[in-house]
Specification:
The protein is an alpha/beta fold and 220 residues long. 49% of the residues lie in helices and 13% in strands.
Protein backbone atom coordinates (compact mmCIF):
# COMPACT_ATOMS: atom_id res chain seq x y z
CA UNK A 1 0.00 0.00 0.00
CA UNK A 2 1.23 3.48 -0.86
CA UNK A 3 0.84 6.00 1.94
CA UNK A 4 -0.54 9.28 0.64
CA UNK A 5 1.12 12.09 2.62
CA UNK A 6 0.14 15.74 2.97
CA UNK A 7 2.86 18.06 4.30
CA UNK A 8 1.87 21.12 6.35
CA UNK A 9 4.62 23.58 7.30
CA UNK A 10 4.92 27.32 6.80
CA UNK A 11 8.59 27.09 5.80
CA UNK A 12 8.95 26.34 2.09
CA UNK A 13 12.44 24.87 2.39
CA UNK A 14 11.32 22.53 5.16
CA UNK A 15 8.33 21.35 3.14
CA UNK A 16 10.46 20.76 0.06
CA UNK A 17 13.07 18.84 2.05
CA UNK A 18 10.36 16.64 3.59
CA UNK A 19 8.77 16.17 0.16
CA UNK A 20 12.03 14.95 -1.35
CA UNK A 21 12.50 12.55 1.56
CA UNK A 22 8.95 11.16 1.38
CA UNK A 23 9.09 10.77 -2.40
CA UNK A 24 12.34 8.82 -2.05
CA UNK A 25 10.43 6.04 -0.25
CA UNK A 26 8.88 3.48 -2.62
CA UNK A 27 5.80 3.08 -0.44
CA UNK A 28 4.91 6.77 -0.09
CA UNK A 29 3.86 9.72 -2.20
CA UNK A 30 3.29 13.40 -1.46
CA UNK A 31 -0.23 14.38 -2.48
CA UNK A 32 -0.14 17.99 -1.33
CA UNK A 33 1.66 20.74 0.54
CA UNK A 34 0.14 23.38 2.81
CA UNK A 35 1.70 26.54 4.23
CA UNK A 36 -1.02 27.08 6.85
CA UNK A 37 -3.26 24.94 8.98
CA UNK A 38 -6.31 26.15 7.09
CA UNK A 39 -4.77 25.07 3.80
CA UNK A 40 -4.04 21.68 5.32
CA UNK A 41 -7.68 21.20 6.34
CA UNK A 42 -8.86 22.25 2.89
CA UNK A 43 -6.36 20.13 0.98
CA UNK A 44 -6.68 16.94 3.02
CA UNK A 45 -10.16 16.33 1.67
CA UNK A 46 -9.41 16.75 -2.01
CA UNK A 47 -6.01 15.08 -1.86
CA UNK A 48 -7.43 11.93 -0.23
CA UNK A 49 -4.43 11.90 2.11
CA UNK A 50 -3.85 9.02 4.51
CA UNK A 51 -1.61 11.05 6.80
CA UNK A 52 -0.75 14.67 7.48
CA UNK A 53 2.72 15.64 8.68
CA UNK A 54 1.71 18.71 10.68
CA UNK A 55 3.78 21.57 12.00
CA UNK A 56 2.36 23.31 15.07
CA UNK A 57 3.31 26.94 14.59
CA UNK A 58 1.74 28.17 11.35
CA UNK A 59 -0.07 31.37 10.33
CA UNK A 60 -3.82 31.70 9.75
CA UNK A 61 -4.67 28.47 11.61
CA UNK A 62 -2.12 26.66 13.75
CA UNK A 63 -1.43 22.93 13.56
CA UNK A 64 -3.28 22.14 16.77
CA UNK A 65 -6.57 23.64 15.60
CA UNK A 66 -6.07 22.10 12.14
CA UNK A 67 -5.58 18.72 13.79
CA UNK A 68 -8.73 19.22 15.87
CA UNK A 69 -10.78 20.02 12.77
CA UNK A 70 -9.45 17.00 10.89
CA UNK A 71 -10.04 14.65 13.83
CA UNK A 72 -13.59 15.95 14.33
CA UNK A 73 -14.61 15.52 10.69
CA UNK A 74 -16.37 12.17 10.22
CA UNK A 75 -15.53 12.20 6.52
CA UNK A 76 -11.84 12.25 7.45
CA UNK A 77 -12.04 9.45 10.01
CA UNK A 78 -9.22 7.51 8.37
CA UNK A 79 -6.78 10.42 8.21
CA UNK A 80 -3.97 10.33 10.76
CA UNK A 81 -1.89 13.30 11.94
CA UNK A 82 1.81 13.14 12.81
CA UNK A 83 2.98 16.33 14.51
CA UNK A 84 6.52 17.62 14.06
CA UNK A 85 7.68 20.05 16.72
CA UNK A 86 10.75 21.52 18.36
CA UNK A 87 9.79 19.68 21.55
CA UNK A 88 12.07 21.44 24.01
CA UNK A 89 10.54 24.82 23.23
CA UNK A 90 6.98 24.03 22.13
CA UNK A 91 4.61 23.57 25.04
CA UNK A 92 1.60 22.93 22.81
CA UNK A 93 2.32 19.27 22.09
CA UNK A 94 -0.09 18.09 24.80
CA UNK A 95 -2.86 20.10 23.17
CA UNK A 96 -1.98 18.46 19.86
CA UNK A 97 -2.44 14.99 21.35
CA UNK A 98 -5.71 16.06 22.89
CA UNK A 99 -6.81 17.47 19.55
CA UNK A 100 -6.36 14.08 17.93
CA UNK A 101 -2.77 13.77 16.76
CA UNK A 102 -1.57 10.18 16.63
CA UNK A 103 2.06 10.92 17.34
CA UNK A 104 4.84 13.45 17.42
CA UNK A 105 8.47 13.82 16.44
CA UNK A 106 11.05 16.52 16.93
CA UNK A 107 12.16 18.26 13.76
CA UNK A 108 15.78 17.20 14.13
CA UNK A 109 14.85 13.52 13.88
CA UNK A 110 16.81 11.43 11.41
CA UNK A 111 15.31 10.96 7.93
CA UNK A 112 14.90 7.20 8.33
CA UNK A 113 13.09 7.72 11.64
CA UNK A 114 10.63 10.13 10.03
CA UNK A 115 9.82 7.61 7.30
CA UNK A 116 9.36 4.86 9.88
CA UNK A 117 7.12 7.16 11.91
CA UNK A 118 4.94 7.85 8.89
CA UNK A 119 4.58 4.11 8.28
CA UNK A 120 3.78 3.46 11.95
CA UNK A 121 1.10 6.13 12.23
CA UNK A 122 -0.41 5.35 8.82
CA UNK A 123 -0.75 1.72 9.88
CA UNK A 124 -2.98 2.78 12.76
CA UNK A 125 -0.49 2.88 15.61
CA UNK A 126 0.51 5.91 17.64
CA UNK A 127 4.08 7.09 17.91
CA UNK A 128 5.15 8.09 21.42
CA UNK A 129 8.82 8.18 22.25
CA UNK A 130 9.50 7.00 25.84
CA UNK A 131 11.56 9.93 27.11
CA UNK A 132 9.36 12.79 25.93
CA UNK A 133 6.27 10.75 26.77
CA UNK A 134 7.04 10.86 30.49
CA UNK A 135 7.24 14.65 30.45
CA UNK A 136 4.18 15.01 28.27
CA UNK A 137 1.98 12.76 30.37
CA UNK A 138 2.99 14.52 33.57
CA UNK A 139 1.64 17.77 32.11
CA UNK A 140 -1.32 16.06 30.47
CA UNK A 141 -2.53 14.53 33.72
CA UNK A 142 -2.61 17.95 35.33
CA UNK A 143 -4.95 19.14 32.59
CA UNK A 144 -8.64 19.30 33.52
CA UNK A 145 -9.67 18.14 30.05
CA UNK A 146 -7.73 14.90 29.68
CA UNK A 147 -9.79 12.35 27.72
CA UNK A 148 -12.17 10.11 29.64
CA UNK A 149 -11.36 6.43 29.35
CA UNK A 150 -11.98 3.31 31.40
CA UNK A 151 -9.57 2.02 34.01
CA UNK A 152 -7.35 -1.08 33.86
CA UNK A 153 -9.48 -2.99 36.39
CA UNK A 154 -11.38 -4.63 33.53
CA UNK A 155 -8.19 -6.00 31.96
CA UNK A 156 -6.67 -9.46 32.32
CA UNK A 157 -3.21 -9.84 33.85
CA UNK A 158 -1.68 -10.23 30.41
CA UNK A 159 -3.47 -7.16 29.12
CA UNK A 160 -2.21 -5.15 32.08
CA UNK A 161 1.33 -6.25 31.20
CA UNK A 162 0.80 -5.13 27.63
CA UNK A 163 -0.69 -1.81 28.76
CA UNK A 164 2.34 -1.22 30.98
CA UNK A 165 4.69 -1.73 28.03
CA UNK A 166 2.58 0.54 25.83
CA UNK A 167 2.88 3.17 28.54
CA UNK A 168 6.65 2.81 28.44
CA UNK A 169 6.63 3.63 24.73
CA UNK A 170 7.18 0.16 23.26
CA UNK A 171 5.73 -0.66 19.86
CA UNK A 172 3.97 -3.96 19.08
CA UNK A 173 7.14 -5.71 17.92
CA UNK A 174 9.00 -4.69 21.07
CA UNK A 175 6.06 -5.76 23.23
CA UNK A 176 6.02 -9.15 21.51
CA UNK A 177 9.75 -9.64 22.11
CA UNK A 178 9.47 -8.58 25.75
CA UNK A 179 6.60 -10.96 26.54
CA UNK A 180 7.55 -13.84 24.24
CA UNK A 181 4.53 -13.32 21.98
CA UNK A 182 4.08 -13.10 18.24
CA UNK A 183 3.72 -9.55 16.84
CA UNK A 184 0.18 -10.40 15.73
CA UNK A 185 -0.76 -11.53 19.26
CA UNK A 186 0.70 -8.34 20.71
CA UNK A 187 -1.26 -6.25 18.22
CA UNK A 188 -4.43 -8.17 19.10
CA UNK A 189 -3.90 -7.50 22.80
CA UNK A 190 -3.45 -3.78 22.15
CA UNK A 191 -6.62 -3.66 20.05
CA UNK A 192 -8.63 -5.45 22.74
CA UNK A 193 -7.30 -3.13 25.42
CA UNK A 194 -8.31 -0.10 23.36
CA UNK A 195 -11.79 -1.55 23.01
CA UNK A 196 -12.18 -2.32 26.71
CA UNK A 197 -10.93 1.09 27.77
CA UNK A 198 -12.82 2.99 25.06
CA UNK A 199 -9.52 4.55 24.04
CA UNK A 200 -9.30 6.33 20.70
CA UNK A 201 -5.69 5.41 20.07
CA UNK A 202 -2.38 4.40 21.61
CA UNK A 203 -1.81 7.87 23.01
CA UNK A 204 -4.80 7.46 25.31
CA UNK A 205 -3.54 4.05 26.41
CA UNK A 206 -0.35 5.74 27.56
CA UNK A 207 -2.41 8.21 29.57
CA UNK A 208 -4.34 5.38 31.25
CA UNK A 209 -1.09 3.61 32.09
CA UNK A 210 0.17 6.75 33.86
CA UNK A 211 -3.13 7.64 35.52
CA UNK A 212 -3.47 4.14 36.98
CA UNK A 213 0.10 4.03 38.25
CA UNK A 214 1.15 1.12 36.01
CA UNK A 215 3.86 3.41 34.69
CA UNK A 216 5.52 6.35 36.39
CA UNK A 217 8.09 8.74 34.93
CA UNK A 218 10.83 7.12 36.99
CA UNK A 219 10.34 3.56 35.75
CA UNK A 220 10.40 3.92 31.97
Amino acid sequence: MTVRVLLADDQTLVREAFAMLVESAPDMEVVGQAATGRQAVELVRGARADLVVMDIRMPDLDGIEATRLIAADEDLAGVRVLVLTTYDTDENIVDALRAGASGFLVKDTRPAELLDAIRTVAAGDSLLSPGPTARLIQRFLRSPSAPETGGPECLSDREREVLTLVGRGLNNTEIAESLGLSPLTAKTHVSRIMGKLAARDRAQLVIVAYESGLVTPGNI
